[in-house]
Amino acid sequence: MINWELRKMEGYTFSNWAGTKSCTPELYFEPTTVDEIKQIIDKARQEGKRIKVRGYGHSPNDIACGDEYMIYLKNMEAVINVDEVQCQVTVQAGCSLKTLAVDILPKYKMALPVCPAVGEPTIAGAISSGTHATGKHYGNLGSYVRSLKLLTANSDIIDCSEEENEEIFRAAVCSIGCLGIILEITLQCHEAFQLHSIAKPSTFEEILTRLDTFLEEYDHAKFFWYPHTEKVVVYHDIRTKHQPVKNNFSWFWDRLIGHHLHEFSMWIGCLFPRVQPFVNQMMFRLLCDSTVERVDAMYNLFTYYCLYSQDVTEWAIPLEKTADVLRELKSKMSLNPEIAAHFPLEVRFAKADEGLISPCHKRDSCFINIVHFRPYGINSSNDSYWNLFQDIVKKAGGRPHWAKDHGVTGKDFCKMYPEWGKFCAIREKLDPSGMFLNKHLERIFDINHSKKDN
Prior knowledge:
- The chain is of the alpha+beta class.
- It has a domain at about 195-400: Vanillyl-alcohol Oxidase, Chain A, domain 3 (3-Layer(aba) Sandwich), CATH 3.40.462.10.
- About 35% of the residues lie in helices and about 25% in strands.
- It starts with a helix and ends with a helix.
């Protein structure tokens, strides 16, 4: 039995990484066993409380916030099994991507198939939100899940895979945390490899003109555009067996000098939006106007320091519409020079998958990520930039990244996802009382909590 006085915490405040969203749940728990989690669920069911399972908290929106019970699985990060023949690993849900990629898999000469830009999130949080990396022939992280264990609102444990409870599995590999609590995940890995990465300057039209060739030539291609300029940084990443060759000066520049210079330049841009194009031009020349070549592990190349507080929105559009969407965005932004469009605008790619509400559901996708920084903690308006961008990607059939800022609700999702109704039916069956909902999820599912209570 749980010693409630030791396991619960009152007055705990959760805040996301950017400091933009926070909450103070009634009770906060850090369980160490599945039995403890079951007891928390039983207590919540008896008292009519909701449960929110938090992860690392990197999302800029309030998807991880909850006012009643909050659970953090930081103590449940063990390796359950490693299958070196099938190249698969089974871990508890609280294991972080960094721990998996850096501390566990290299021991078995294995590697993550893809790696996102931020490595600290838990494996369960990452797959639940549709976290992805880049590469036309590589899916998001959830597409490499081979099985998982899901603890539901009535304390049942459901084993899910393509062979067992297949429909629940397709919902759970990108579940936005509303089906239950993921306990364990079996992930398909790859044989260990390095990446030979070349980052070099290019131009907006050059990369869009040869986009198809670019995506076929390189395993993990992506590019960054500096808004209000013609400047682009392209990343050519090819898998290799060569030994790592690191650039320590680059790390020093990026983490120390680059951080402070970037924050100061964004502060100037926020105060005087019309100088942002000049800021973007200047920073490109300082940071990106030369070719940089490295050989290293994917984790070291793909993850990066996110600098400081920021608002972020990201949408997945059909791959074939990439060039048209970016050209339209650039054209409309040129007519609105007062928009303080911070750099960089990040463009990545992912293969279609079968997750019911995965942003890549049944279509190859281009992810476009835009950022509005909050230098020194100041707030400045990004509404004009956000609205312009979202109008364009929405018209192109875009789907928002679940862990980023967006204003989309259930009525919109019905149009975006052909199996939205099926996902909602699975959610209502597994959690009829809404134990795993929060205010964010109510907006997504277009649920009026006060009406439901009555």
